[in-house]
Amino acid sequence: MIYFTSDLHFWHKNAIVYTNRPFETVEEMNEKLIEYWNKTVHQNDEVYILGDVTMVRPNRAMEILSQLKGRKYLLMGNHDYFAREKQFDHSACGIEWVKMYHELHWQGRTFVLCHYPFLSWNKDSHGSYNLHGHLHSSPEDNLRNKKNGRRQFDVGVDANDFKPVTLEAIVSFFEGVA
């Protein structure tokens, strides 16, 4: 199974306040995000993290990432300073690669992946999708994009019940098929 997520913001107290997350403390938020992830994702699943994992130092970032199931791919966000530091060993915490941008091809479809949403993206007029984070959208924002004919989807935890979302669910959301 292929999953997407973003904007976890582990150890970021202000993420609770700014996005009105239903957690009292960062410890509770961290615990619940790990729990929801690991109840959703299996060890052999692939998870594309579209940025903003955490703003902590590399050792704490690797500690958190190591607790998350799946083969992980990181598309860096504006808060992922840890991934630029020499001490960060992506392979030690199950990260296959770290990039800023990636195109995924699946069943004849193109998915343009980046932390940031695009106004226009590769093959957007030919049915491709832009999967992103950064905005901390609500589910209604994804519905608005669908209604307006934009195949743009915020995969962030705030728009997806604090869990990774499957590729099939995104395709079904827009096309009514998986």
Description:
The structure is a single chain. By secondary structure, this protein is of the alpha/beta class. Helices cover 27% and strands 22% of the residues. It has five helices and nine strands. The chain has helices spanning 13-18, 26-40, 58-66, 139-147, 167-175; strands at 2-5, 46-49, 71-75, 95-99, 101-106, 109-114, 129-132, 152-154, 165-166. It has a five-stranded mixed beta sheet. Strands 5-6-7-8 form a four-stranded mixed beta sheet. Helix 4 links the parallel strand 7 (129-132) and strand 8 (152-154). The mean pLDDT is 96.
Task: Characterize the main sheet.
Answer: 5 strands, mixed
Radius of gyration: 15 Å
Question: What's the helix-strand series?
Answer: EHHEHEEEEEHEEH
Question: Share of helix among residues?
Answer: 25-40%
Q: Strand content of the residues, in percent?
A: 15-25%
End-to-end distance:
12 Å
How many distinct beta strands?
A: 9
**What is the count of DSSP helices, taking H or I runs of 4+ residues?**
5
Poorly predicted segments? none
Please list the strands of the largest sheet in the order they lie side by side.
4-3-2-1-9
Structural class: alpha/beta
Mean pLDDT: 96
Shape: globular
